[in-house]
Amino acid sequence: MHTLKDKVSQKLSNLFADSPSQSASPRFSNSDSPKARLSSSVGKSLSSYFSFVVPQSGNDDDDSESCPPPLPIRTDSSESIENCKPEYGQDKAGTFVSNGEDKESDKGRELRVSAKVESGNDYLEGVKQMRELTESSVFITANLCEFLQACLPNIVRGCKWFLLYSTLKHGISLRTLLRRSGELPGPCLLVAGDKQGAVFGALLECPLRPTPKRKYQGTSQTFLFTTIYGEPRIFRPTGANRYYLMCMNEFLAFGGGGNFALCLDEDLLKATSGPSETFGNECLASSTEFELKNVELWGFAHASRYLSS
Question: What is the C-alpha separation between 207 and 184, in angstroms, rounded?
Answer without folding.
Answer: 7
